[in-house]
Design a protein that fits this description.
The structure holds 2 protein chains of 2 kinds. By secondary structure, chain A is of the alpha/beta class. Chain A has helices spanning 21-35, 53-58, 70-82, 101-110, 138-143, 156-168, 220-233, 251-260, 276-287, 307-313, 318-331, and strands spanning 18-19, 39-43, 63-65, 86-92, 116-120, 148-151, 172-176, 182-183, 198-201, 209-216, 237-242, 245-247, 263-271, 291-297. The chains are: A alpha/beta, B alpha/beta.
Amino acid sequence: MLNPELNLNLDFFSSPVKKSLRDGFGEGLVLAGEINKNVVALCTDVTDSLRMHLFKNRFPERFIELGIAEQNMIGVASGLASTGKIPVVGAYAVFSPGRNWEQIRTTICYNKQKIIIVGSHSGLNVGPDGASHQALEDIALTRVLPNLAVISPADALEAKKSILKAIDYPTSVYIRLPREPSIILTTEDTPFEIGKSQVFWLPSNKEQFIGVTIFANGLLVVEALRAAQELEIEGIGIAVINNSAIKPLDENLVLEWAKKSKAIITLEEHQVAGGMGSAISEFLSAKYPIKIYFMGVNDTFGESGTAKELIEKYHLDSESIKKKVKEIIRNN
Amino acid sequence: MARKKKSSFKNNKIKKLEELSVIIREEIIKMLLEAGSGHCAGPLGAVEQYIALYFGNILKYDPRNPDWPERDRVVVSNGHYAPLLYTVLSYAGYFNKEELKTLRKLGSRLQGHPSRLSLPGIETSSGPVGEGLSQAVGMAIGLKLSGIKSQVYCLMGDGEQDCGNTWEAAMLASKYQLDNLTILIDRNNIQIDGFTEKVMPLEPLKEKYEAFGFKVLEVDGHNIEEIINALNKAKSIFSKPVVIICHTIPGKGINFMEWEYKWHGKVPNSREAEEALRQLRNLKGKIQSELD
């Protein structure tokens, strides 16, 4: 069942409403600009796509269009931060933090200037544009950098909360956004903190819990919840965590659920190497070794197709998750 | 004789700065000998630019209040000039000169390349070249947005003109008509692999920057007075960013280092350092620009 303590959107199975996370981010950015006059926004020729036009229209003097120059964007943001501004930089994740990784490392993280990096179009859900535009490496690239937090919101409301929380967070933050709209899982009243993850699905009764916990992020949280609901009908109880906090990891929560579980599944639209699953595995192998099944992209690039087709082809959809859970039950 | 006569007309101030340029070169040699690694040729060639900025009544700065919001910003894009930057900062009063000999040592505030949080007076952590101009542009925009009338100086090498990031930043500086931004390019014609024009031809550099919307001034980079005049002129140019191309000799002042690109990333051994210091002592107060 959906965790009753989180004020989740209880209707999302029966009457799903879809909204793009980029819309949530764009609205949140305007709010952030209203709350804090030091917020400035920078974009690299994808302003409408990232919904940054909302901020641009509201605060034209605080919006900087850089053209297709992601490396420059980071350096400029670093300079702006040094004068007391809070820059929010937007681009597709393939290019930021892809193309400009060294600039992020040196001028932001080592230089300790606080900015917010928003990488959109992450994951296979980018769809028809194909492998060149599907960022599957951005978590690996960002979570190795000191002074940088990494979060992956699961719906438009979380995306909105992400940017608002990131403004006040003490370090720079990378916010990972998908392209495809997502079903709204949460409500305005659902809590959201950087560094905190949440149990979205609990077994309805303890006896049904077969000891499998799924840690998912982004659009795949919906897939995991769908799998959990369908498995429950079959009498199989699992837990699903919306692991939005990739760095810092919500260590207490991860440890708590590892201890309650026999096995863990990590689920992400990212390379298995270096992703959220790696972060969880690094932590648990030292604190509480437990069997982990990594569901992600295994050392290949994506390709063109619809988001749905790709999620299925790469075995990240609810059917594949159910299959994996049953396989774990068989093998234990 | 003619040389001497001309010098006597120079005001005392410039003469003192010329003397300082030799002292700073001596400090750089001593530091690098002590450190055992680092960069020689570039820092030795760029001394006059730093002296003009910090001691030529150009910069607004206060070593007792390094975070003063109204200060002018100095962005050192070529972080391997750290020995020069550190020496000048210590002579400007940011920290004790004694600390210079800790360069590159474990626990030192004088990291191999500048680290902003370690030392006062450093605006950006740098080392990887080609990204300082972006940061300087960001500062110049930020200062304008905040209504602070401070100048941003970006000190660059010529090798980093190879980097695409540099030109991305140049385009933005021009788009925003950043007249509070002045770039000094140390045009010493060398980089790690050899002479710039062989590694990656940069010329016509002046025309390149002009095409990017800059006002370009060219100076003899060893003539302090000329650099000061150019920096003052740059302050009076409105609606355009300015580039001052400083033509310099790498390793300036030490005959076996001058024009030798091998000295880019090399330090002298004790025999070479001794000879370098001897040559500098003989030059005391007499470092001359080519035009003198």
